[in-house]
Amino acid sequence: MTPAFDLLDVPAPNPLRIPDVHERTLPNGLRTLATRRTSTPLAEVCLSIPFAHADAATAVLLAGALSDETRTQDRARAMGGGLSAAVDADRLRIAGSVLADQLPAFLALLEEIVTAPAYPAGEFAITVDNAVQGTIAILASPAHHVAEALNTRMFGDHPYGRPSPRPEEFRETSRDAVLALHAERVVPTGASVVLAGDFDPAAALDLVERTLGGWRPGPGVPMRRPGPWLPGKSVVDEPGVSQSLLRMAMPAPRYAAPDYPALALAAMVFGGYFSSRLVQNIREDKGFSYSPRSSLLHVAEAHLTTVSLDVVTANTAAAVEEVHAELTGLADRPVTPEELDRARRYSVGTLRLRLATLTGLAATLCELDLHGLGVSWLGGHDARLAAVTPDEVTAAARRYLSPEKAVTVLLCDEERAYPGSFRTQSSL
Amino acid sequence: MTFTGGETVFTRTGRRRQSGGDAVPANTEAASAEVMTLRRGRPDAASVATVMNSTLRADRRYQLTPHVLPNGLRVLVAPGHDAEVVAATVVYDVGSRSEPRGFSGFAHLFEHLMFQGSANLPRGAHAHYVQSCGGVFNGTTHLDYTEYYQVLPSAGVEHAVFLEADRMRSPSLTAAGLANQIDVVAEEITGAIVSRPYGGFPWLQLAPLLFDSFENSHNGYGAIDELRTATTDQAQAFFERYYAPGNAILCLAGDVSADRGIALAERYFSDIPARPVPVRPVIAEPDLTAERRDRFVDPLAPLPAFASAWRVPDPVTDLRGYLAYLVLCLLLTDTALGRLTRRLARRDRWVSSVDCGLGLTGEVFGVRDPTCLVLTAGPVPGGPGTDAILKAVDEEIERLATEGPDPAELTAATRTISAQLVRMLDGLAARARLLAVFALQHGDAGVINELGPLSRAVTADDIRTAAATLRPERRATVELHPGAAR
User: Fold this and answer.
1) For strand B146-153 and strand B136-141, is the pairing parallel, antiparallel, or unpaired?
2) Which residue of A has its CA nearest to B56?
C-alpha cells in the first residue's frame, strides 16, 4: 500500500550559501557589519557594547531606563518598530527592528540614545520600580534559584557568579549613578553594530559612519578571567517543591579550538537533540522528564557544556543516576558511526535553518562577532564537522564530558527525593 | 509536543521580566520568539485604495497553490526560495475544544502519541529521520486545531512528506507508548502548570468564568489522574474520528515548487482511504449579560494579578471587525503607545504591568468563535487594587469609544502590527502553520496576504465601535491572590 520510498537514503543539504557581509571599523572603534536579506521588508539592528565589571544593579537600571523611555518608544513605534535594551555580565545590547525604509531614522534615534541620553528624572522612579517588581517575580521561580546557585558555585565572586541584584540594590541606586555609568561605558570602543535586512549593505555602512562616526571613544575594560574550575556537587533544599531541577556544567573549549567540533558533536549525541541518548533514555524510555537537554554556552570568558533536567520528586534519584550513567557511558559505550553521522547532519542542517530567517541571521552574526569569529567561520562549519572521527568524539567526551569535571546543583525537596540517607550513596 | 497558544503579539506573562546580571543562564530555555497578529476578510474598495496609495513597503505577498486529493486531503504549496529550507506542516481540525466530556486533555495526549511510530516506522524513527535530514520537528495542540511540523533543508522534503503520510495512514497506538507518553505529559503539566508561579494563568481560570459549555470552559491540559485512565481503544477511536484525511491540511512552504509539492503529496497521501469527516461540535454560546467575578490563590505567586476578558467578533465571519480589536489592544497596552500603560503603569503607578491580547491562550490567529480579548494586570502591592484599576480601564476605553484614537497613534499602531506580521511570517514554521490554519478555518489561505493591508485599513471609527463594546457587564474578571507574598 505504502508507496515505495528509501527512507535510509537521507539526502545531504546543498552547500551552505554564505551571507555576503560588508564590514568596516570606524575610526572611533565601532565595528560595523551589514548584510542584505530581501525576504521581508525589515531591518534588524543590534548594537553590542562591552560592559564587563559594570555595577550590575546600575547596569540593569541603565538598560531598563533606555528601553522604558517614552519618547524613544514613541519614535520607534512611528517607524513600525521597537527598541529594547538588555544587559548581561559581558555586554549591553541595544536592539531594534523596523520597517527597512525607516533604517536612517532608526540609526538617528540610536545615535541620540548613545551620545545624548535623556534619562528623564520623572521616569527613573518607574524604571527602579519595574526592576524591583521584576526581581520579586523572578526570585519566586525555582528555576532562577537553581541558576543562581549554579552560577555562584561555578564562578564565586567573579561577575558571572554574582546573583541577580536584589530589590534593595535597585532602590539604593541613583539616577546620577546611571548617568555616570553611561558616560563612562556607553562608548564605541570594543562595540559592534550588526545590521541585517532589505537594504543596500554598502550604503548602510556609509549611513552608520555618518550617523555614529562622531560617537566618542572611551576606555576598554576587559572581563577578568574566572578563577580555577572546582568541580563539585551541591543540593539546594526547598521543602515542598513538586519538581526537582538538576543543572550541571562542564568546561568546554572555545569555538575556535581544534577539538571544539568533536566536543560539539559529543554533546549533541549526549543530549543536544531529540535523537540524543539522554532524551531517548530519560524521556522516551523512562518517561522521567519532559525536556532533558544539554547545550553549549559561550560567554566572553567562559565556555560550558550544560545539562538540564526537571523531574518530579519521586523520580529524582533514578533520573540523576541515569544522567550520570549516560555521561560516563559516552566513554564506555563509544559513539557509533550512525550516531555521529546523525548528529553531524543535524548540526549541518540546523545551521541552514538558523540563517533562513532575518532574526536568526542577525543573531548569528552578532554571536560570531562577539567571539571574534568572522563570517568565514560559517564557511568552514560543515567541513570541520565532516572531518571529525568517532574516536575523536570519544576522546572529546572523555576530556570534557566526564561527570567528575562537572559542577552539579540539584534543587529538590531533599527529604522526599532522598528518603533516609540514600543520597550519600548516590552518584550526585 | 506542547500545548501552546501559538504566537503572541503581546506578552501575556502578567509580569515584566528582567534578568539583569544573569551572566550564565543555566536554564537555557529555547524561547520561541515568534510574534504575531491577525486580520482577514475581503478588503473593501476604500481600504484597497488606501493601501495602493501608500508607498510604505510593509508587506510580502506569498504565492499559493491549493490542491485537493480524492480522499479529501487539502494540499497547499507556498513556494519561497529565499533560503534552501522548507516547512512541511499538517494541521488537523481537532483541538482541545473538540474534546467530549470526560476526555479533558485527550487532544494533547494524542498529539504525543503521533510520535510513537507508525506503519513503516518504529518508535523514535520520526525524530531520527527528520534530524538526519538536518531538520527540526514538533507537534503543538491548540484550542481549535492540532499541528505537526518539520522545518528542514529542502533536500529533505520528500522524507518529511513520507513521514507525515505514514502516521496519517496508521500511527502505532500501543499500550507501552501510551503509558510512556502519559508519564511525559504528566511531567509537562507539572512543569508548566503545577510547579510554576502563574502557571496556566489566566487561561485556565478565565475559560470557566467567561464560558459555560464544557467545550469552551474545560482545562485543555486535562487532569493527570484522568489522563492515566486513557486506553489504546480510546486512542484508536480518536484517531479514526478526527484524523481522517478530509479533516486535515498539508502545507509545504519555502524552497519547493508548486508542481513538486503537489506531486509529493499525491505520491504519498493518495492511498490513504477517505473516512467521514467529523462534524465540528457546536461551541457557540451566548455573550455575558452581567459581570462575572472570581478569585483564587496561587500558592507559588509572589505578587497579585488579575485578568479580565470580553467576547470579540467571530474572526472568520467578521475578520475586519475582529482586527479592530487587535489594533485596540495596542492602543490600550502597547509598551510604547498604550493609554493604559501610560496612565496606570507609568503615571499613577497602580500596576507594575498591564497587557491586552486576543485569545485565551494568547493565540490571535487560529481561534474560532467564541473567543475574547484578555486584559491582564499586575496591581502594585499597597496600591488601590483591582476595582479602582478596572474603573480606570473603563474610563480609558470610554474615552476611546467617544473620541477615537489620534491619527498618529492609529498609524503607529497599524504600522507596528504590519511589521510584527512580516517578521513572524519570515519564519517558515509560523508561515506554514498560519497558511494551513487559514485554509482550515477561513476556507482561504490567501487571508495571509490581506492581513497587513487590512490592519492598516482599520479606521478611527472601527476603533470607536470596538471600544464601545468593552462594557463592564460583558466582562469576566478573575483575581489571582499571591500565596507566596512576602
Assistant:
1) antiparallel
2) A101
The verdict on a CB contact (< 8 Å) between A42 and B27 is no
Q: Does B346 reach chain A within 8 Å, measured CB to CB?
A: yes
Mutate to test the interface with A, among B82, B132, B170, B256 (most CBs of A within 10 A): B132
The ranges assigned to domains in chain A are 21-212, 232-425
CA atoms of A385 and A267, how far apart (whole Å): 13
The correct answer on CATH 3.30.830.10 for the domain covering A21-212 is: yes
Residue among A7, A42, A352 minimizing CB distance to B423: A42
pLDDT tens sequence across B287-330: 999 999 999 999 999 999 999 999 999 999 999 999 999 999 99
For chain B, residues classed under CATH 3.30.830.10 are: 63-269, 292-482
Q: What's the whole-number mean pLDDT along residues B195-212?
A: 95
Q: Return the residue of B nearest to A240 by Cα.
A: B195
Of B181, B378, B419, the CB nearest to A42: B419
**CATH-assigned architecture of domain B292-482:** 2-Layer Sandwich (3.30)
d(C-alpha A8, C-alpha B264), whole Å = 18
Identify the helix (H) or strand (E) that includes residue B358: strand B351-358
Confirm or reject contact between B187 and chain A (CB < 8 A).
Answer: yes
Per residue in A109-132, pLDDT (tens digit) is 999 999 999 999 989 999 999 999
For A394, list phi and psi in degrees, rounded to 5.
Answer: -65, -40
The CATH number of B63-269 is which of 3.40.50.720, 3.40.50.10770, 3.30.70.2740, 3.30.830.10?
3.30.830.10
Whether residue A83 has pLDDT greater than 80: yes
- Which H or E run contains A251? strand A243-251
